[in-house]
What does this fold into?
Amino acid sequence: MTTTDWGSIYKELGARPVINATGSVTMLGGSTPAPEVKEAMERADGAYIPLMELEERAGEAIAKMVDVPAAYITSGAGSALTLATAACMAGDDDARIQQLPDTTGMKNEILIQTRQRYWYDRCLELAGAKLVTFGTSESTSREELEKAIGPNTAAVHYYAVAQEPDPQALPLKDTIEIAHAKGVPVLVDAAGQIYPLDLFGSYVRMGADFQCTAAKYMGSAQSTGLAFGSEDMIRKLALQSFVSYEGRRVRGVGRPQKVARQEMVGAVAAVRRWMTLNHEERLADTEAKCRTMLEPLQGIPGVKAHLMGNIIGHQPYGVTLEVDQAVAGMSCQDVVDRLKAGEPPIWTRVREGDDCIILHAFGLNEGEDKVVGQRIAALFGK
It folds into this structure.
């Protein structure tokens, strides 16, 4: 619930704090570290440590908990994608590591299904790689991938979203089979694929060479991500990182992507917490907050609001809000704009390609679920 102290540290700087009904978005700060994570980070303040050693030990601990061959902490899922791409091109050749993003003399093409082009595939290009699409916007076949793999193919990328499976995309199992038959690694963006727990790390266990996860979804700091993969892939990925740049004095492209020692131990604590958390209680709490938002939105002319029941992934449940402008007198975007202009501002959004608002409880503090529902209802005079 908002109080007189709510957001005061931002107000002192002349910035406006907001109620976050959008979810775990980077734009609003991504996450609030869990108490166990904050405690671990505070304990890490007490001593310095060589970060190459800490990365190695922390990765070993996380890999054991998640049951994957190897793991590495990065400055986010996007960072993990960039480092993995660099690893596929430069490998463990120090001269090539320092040559990137100039890819002269290297395999530099990352294959991606046309249907799977998305906002964050830009991260694959930052180390100098070239994206090459295969398939069509309607579908992708095995033959199209087989034909697309060529002498300059460094890897095949796959965008995994278990919450919204795409029956027209080439399945990951087929992608791995075809790519590996030609000696090409497979990279999987699985940023939000952390629940059910058997989904967490599952793409590497299936045979992919790499997958990334955004650790913020588990209550870690916003600027932490996880790279899972084969031991060889993670070893080569580490050579591209900021700790290798400083520790080995090899100037890889990962230098700007720092992770603090406090964040590293915080990420370990976040994974430990996630693997032992009572998820039934977590889901019940999230559902209750969503129902609180939903209740005052019922019975408003021109407004349809219902509970989303998908609990897979990092943001379970949610409230879908559809607005008939002809009846309600405003559009979904009008609702978004008016909430943002209010006091305190409430941030929601109409995602590109959608015609509705989805309210999430992930970023809501205690009592803010009630505020969100009442504020939206008030826009329509209820």
